[in-house]
Amino acid sequence: MNNKLKVLRAMRDWSQAELAGHLDVSRQAVNAIETGKHDPSLPLAFRIARLFEMPIEEIFDDGL
Protein backbone atom coordinates (compact mmCIF):
# COMPACT_ATOMS: atom_id res chain seq x y z
CA MET A 1 0.00 0.00 0.00
CA ASN A 2 1.34 3.41 -0.94
CA ASN A 3 1.24 6.15 1.64
CA LYS A 4 2.22 9.77 2.25
CA LEU A 5 3.44 9.23 5.80
CA LYS A 6 7.06 10.17 5.11
CA VAL A 7 6.02 13.40 3.36
CA LEU A 8 3.57 14.34 6.11
CA ARG A 9 6.19 13.62 8.77
CA ALA A 10 8.77 15.74 6.94
CA MET A 11 6.30 18.63 6.64
CA ARG A 12 6.16 18.73 10.44
CA ASP A 13 9.93 18.30 10.69
CA TRP A 14 9.52 15.18 12.82
CA SER A 15 11.95 12.29 12.98
CA GLN A 16 10.61 8.77 12.74
CA ALA A 17 11.16 8.48 16.49
CA GLU A 18 9.11 11.62 17.16
CA LEU A 19 6.23 10.36 15.00
CA ALA A 20 6.45 6.98 16.72
CA GLY A 21 6.11 8.73 20.08
CA HIS A 22 2.97 10.55 18.93
CA LEU A 23 1.50 7.25 17.74
CA ASP A 24 2.73 5.09 20.64
CA VAL A 25 4.53 2.67 18.32
CA SER A 26 8.20 1.89 17.70
CA ARG A 27 10.40 3.81 15.30
CA GLN A 28 10.82 0.54 13.42
CA ALA A 29 7.05 0.34 12.95
CA VAL A 30 7.00 3.84 11.46
CA ASN A 31 9.87 2.90 9.13
CA ALA A 32 8.10 -0.29 8.03
CA ILE A 33 4.91 1.62 7.22
CA GLU A 34 6.75 4.41 5.39
CA THR A 35 8.68 1.95 3.22
CA GLY A 36 5.62 -0.18 2.48
CA LYS A 37 6.96 -3.27 4.25
CA HIS A 38 3.95 -3.30 6.56
CA ASP A 39 0.47 -1.86 6.37
CA PRO A 40 -0.82 -0.27 9.56
CA SER A 41 -3.62 -1.87 11.50
CA LEU A 42 -6.95 -0.12 11.12
CA PRO A 43 -6.77 1.42 14.63
CA LEU A 44 -3.26 2.72 13.87
CA ALA A 45 -4.39 4.09 10.49
CA PHE A 46 -7.15 6.00 12.31
CA ARG A 47 -4.62 7.38 14.84
CA ILE A 48 -2.38 8.52 11.99
CA ALA A 49 -5.32 10.18 10.21
CA ARG A 50 -6.39 11.98 13.39
CA LEU A 51 -2.83 13.11 14.12
CA PHE A 52 -2.47 14.68 10.67
CA GLU A 53 -6.14 15.80 10.58
CA MET A 54 -6.73 14.10 7.24
CA PRO A 55 -9.01 11.33 5.97
CA ILE A 56 -7.34 7.92 5.86
CA GLU A 57 -7.85 7.83 2.09
CA GLU A 58 -5.66 10.91 1.66
CA ILE A 59 -2.77 9.27 3.50
CA PHE A 60 -3.03 5.67 2.31
CA ASP A 61 -3.64 4.52 -1.27
CA ASP A 62 -4.40 0.90 -2.05
CA GLY A 63 -3.68 1.47 -5.73
CA LEU A 64 -7.22 0.78 -6.94
Overall description:
Helix content is 59%, strand content 6%. By secondary structure, the chain is mostly helical. The protein has a single domain (2-55), classed as lambda repressor-like DNA-binding domains (434 Repressor (Amino-terminal Domain)). GO terms for molecular function: DNA binding. InterPro entries: Cro/C1-type_HTH, Lambda_DNA-bd_dom_sf. Keywords: DNA-binding.
| Gyration radius from CA atoms, angstroms | 10 Å
What is the strand arrangement across the widest sheet?
A: 1-2
| Unreliable residue runs | none
Structural class: mainly alpha
CATH A-level architecture:
Orthogonal Bundle
- What's the structural domain tally? 1
**Main β-sheet, in a few words?**
2 strands, antiparallel
Helix proportion range: 55-70%
Secondary-structure blueprint of this entry?
Layout: E1 2-3, H1 5-11, H2 16-23, H3 27-34, H4 42-52, H5 56-59, E2 60-61
Antiparallel strand pairs: 1-2
